[in-house]
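REQUEST ID: PR-0412
SUBMITTED BY: lab tech R.K.
PRIORITY: routine
TASK: structure prediction, single protein chain
INPUT:
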Amino acid sequence: MSAFWHWFVVIITLVFIAAMVWLFVATGKARVPSGTNKEGEETTGHVWDDDLTELNNPMPRWWLWLFYGTVIFSLIYLALYPGLGNFAGALGWSSSGQYAEERAAADADFQARFGELAQLPLEELAHHPDALRVGRNIFAHNCSTCHGSDARGARGYPNLTNNHWIWGGEVDQVWHSVYHGREAVMPGFGGALDDQDVTRTAVFVQQLAGQQVDSAMAAAGRRHYDMLCAACHGSDGTGNPMLGAPDLTAGVFIYGGTMDAIRYTIRNGRNGVMPAQRDLLGEARSRFVTAYVLSLNAENNGSSNGSGDD
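STATUS: complete
OUTPUT:
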């Protein structure tokens, strides 16, 4: 934080502690005008219901010393641990530092148990039962949030169990997607096409996917497709894995294959991001996850798309 906020936090914190000490001292010594009841006990002078009086008894000393103890504890804590702006504390502890230590210990333990196995080629790992067991657990904890526990994806997240790969399904391509991440950019063409032209282009895309459509509208949409879309998806619509441009002839639409969904994609574009797992999982864990994904594709090759194209 900046110097201003550092001193702001320091001053506010110390002033608050000093105010608490002053409050304890002041209230411990303060006396209010009092009287006595009929038993001769000192009172504050407040009387309710004619005979209910408030006694003027001092705070128990052990209670007052307990308050002082909390102040002493807070000062010791602030001296040892971070809490006063940029001051790191005498012990130099930080939550990020502790996390790094625990992460390093966990990584060392993981490396000792599975490091040798992780060095096997990915093709071999994809058929190794121990590697798949580890990869499945890592996938469940880190990847299932987006791709689902069964890896069949959801709207906006690819199905990993079929044979449709936006960035390519070769071993090296899948490894790159997991370890280095991907960032797809489908530009929106709402500024270049009016609503009718967007609809015509969407109809042609549906025709590419094998749907029954109006041939005249599809032919009109073809012209806009060739002008704006073919550079990435190809003139035949089979896509380009190097650009992350999906194969439109497969009939698999991550964001939905209805007319409204396709129109939205053409008009507004899409920005899908597969975050890199390099820093989160490390190389060994990423290799196990890649092997697990490859095994799912091998087992379910040719299955229907779980992302849905409605």
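NOTES: The chain has twelve helices and five strands.
REVIEWED BY: pending
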